[in-house]
Design brief:
This protein has helices spanning 2-10, 15-55, 62-65, 75-81, 84-92, 97-100, 103-114, 116-122, 129-144, 148-157, 161-177, 196-211, 213-220, 234-249, 255-269, 274-291. It is mainly α and 303 residues long. The mean pLDDT is 90. One of its GO terms (cellular component) is cytosol.
Length: 303
């Protein structure tokens, strides 16, 4: 959607350039996942560094000399820190932001320390892997994923990251929740694409939506009696045409799935009433395609 919108705004036909941008933005989505995962490792490392510094004080207190190490000995955090495969991929992709921008690590670490969840966790006499994992899931969900400073950092650092953040947070939380003590090293390194068809879908959707723009516009014309075509918000028109593209060009995608996905996109990116407007247009388009026997779906089809 963003790539098509960018093409419309630039008034150019540089489809190849937008294809590269699209693939690069998808790749950067994976970098964001690795960046947030590495943040957990760096927070733990900062905690350990603080303990070492406290123990070196000339007038260290008893508590500083014999600190509670439960947080830095957290089994899930230690597993992430010791994951060589993860470290290699992060090095390959040059994911080293927190070494340069460590103030964000400090900010989040301090917020964790101030939380009631941290105090409760540190007061436990003993913990097992499940307890350690549940604590990390909690602080990620309640402190890291909602952190305003982190949000501002991501916004400044990469154009597409804010749009990717909800999906990445959902994936990362899912991986954390299902992590096990005996899990393989590669568990935290999911594939960027499910398969080659998955990658190809993104490019084909962009190409077919752009190259068939005028054809898809014809399906919209006449279905907005109270609106001239020129008065439809540009973003709404793009969303409608992308949905029509999936109706006609992607036989394996059920109609209901397409409609639901694009209505969610409209709710996120367009005007408050856009989803109702778009739903009405798409409903009319589907009925027309069905009447003309133009809706060729395989598998579950319309289910």
């Amino acid at each position: 959607m963003q790539s098509i919108y960018a093409l419309h705004q630039s008034k150019t036909d540089s489809l190849e350039k937008e294809e590269k941008f699209l693939l690069n933005s998808i790749d950067n989505m994976y970098n964001l996942y690795l960046l947030l995962l590495s943040l957990l490792v760096e927070i733990r490392q900062h905690g350990e560094d603080q303990i070492v510094l406290s123990q070196k004080k000339y007038l260290a207190t008893s508590e500083e000399k014999n600190p509670n190490r439960k947080f830095i000995d957290n089994k899930l955090l230690r597993a992430l820190a010791a994951n060589e495969s993860l470290a290699e991929v992060q090095e390959e992709r040059n994911i080293a932001n927190w070494k340069l921008d460590d103030e964000y690590v400090v900010i989040i670490y301090q917020q964790i320390l101030a939380s009631s969840a941290y105090k409760e966790y540190m007061s436990l006499k003993e913990t097992d892997f499940d307890t350690d994992r549940d604590f990390i899931v909690h602080i990620y969900k309640e402190i890291i994923a909602t952190n305003e400073k982190l949000y501002e950092y991501l916004e400044d650092h990469k154009l597409t990251w804010l749009d990717d953040l909800p999906s990445v947070n959902t994936l990362l939380l899912k991986k954390l929740k299902k992590a096990s003590e005996t899990g393989a090293e590669g568990y935290f390194l999911p594939k960027l694409y499910k398969d080659e068809d998955d990658r190809d879908y993104a490019i084909q959707l962009l190409r077919k939506a752009v190259l068939n723009d005028e054809k898809f516009q014809q399906y919209i014309d006449g279905k907005t009696p109270n609106w001239d075509a020129e008065r439809i918000a540009e973003l709404d028109a793009i969303i409608i045409k992308m949905a029509i593209c999936e109706f006609l060009k992607f036989a394996s995608i059920p109609v209901k799935v397409t409609i639901n996905e694009y209505l969610e996109i409209a709710k996120e990116y367009s005007t408050p009433k856009s989803s109702i407007f778009i739903n009405g247009i798409l409903d009319k388009v589907v009925k027309e395609l069905e009447a003309n026997n133009s809706l060729k779906k395989v598998g579950r089809g319309l289910v």
